[in-house]
Amino acid sequence: MAKFQAEIDVMPKKEILDPQGKAVTGSMKNLGLAEIQNVRIGKHITLEIDADSAEAAHAKVDEACKNLLANLIMESYSFKLVQA
Amino acid sequence: MAKFQAEIDVMPKKEILDPQGKAVTGSMKNLGLAEIQNVRIGKHITLEIDADSAEAAHAKVDEACKNLLANLIMESYSFKLVQA
Question: Which GO MF terms does the UniProt record name (chains A, B) (predicted)?
């Protein structure tokens, strides 16, 4: 049994409006950072997982993303695994 | 003037309780994913920035993180920049 660390990004899909990101893009102008455009805000999730192999850990993290962490209608996810 | 893309992670500091992550860790058990532990949830932010150099872009993104994107009392941030 090995311990793996997963770093997961869950982002709103490109074709979906991101009102939080839009608001932050607007605020950049007020902060004197008008060079910053197209802010999009999602979630960054870290977790630890015990598994026999990297493949098994990958499958478990994928299942967690699909069933709990991401709403696949509005969000897409990606992750990377490293052995701890 | 070049365009850069920044990928920013903003996470609750280690010494700070993360109630959202705690709740998700608990839910993993109910989903049959008890191997998953120590879930922590932060923000993943992508943005575009126009700058003369990678150094200038780095300084601007750092300023945006400090002044708007992260609450440095409770959160830490890291980012990477790629030329678009």
Answer: ATP binding; phosphoribosylformylglycinamidine synthase activity
Core vs surface per residue B48-81: b (16+ CB within 10 A) or e = bbbbeeeebbbebbebbbeebbbeeeebbbebeb
- Residuewise pLDDT in 10s, chain B (84 residues): 899 999 999 999 999 999 999 999 999 999 999 999 999 999 999 999 999 999 999 999 999 999 999 999 999 999 999 998
ipTM of the complex: 0.93
Distances (CA, A) of A26 to A13, A20, A38, B1, B82: 20, 10, 10, 21, 23
Check CB contact of A74 with chain B, cutoff 8 Å.
Answer: no
Backbone angles phi, psi at A53, to 5 degrees: -150, 165
Domain limits at A74?
2-83
Residue A7's domain is classified under what CATH number? Answer: 3.30.1280.10
Instruction: Indicate the residue of B33, B49, B69 with minimum beta-carbon distance to A35.
Output: B49
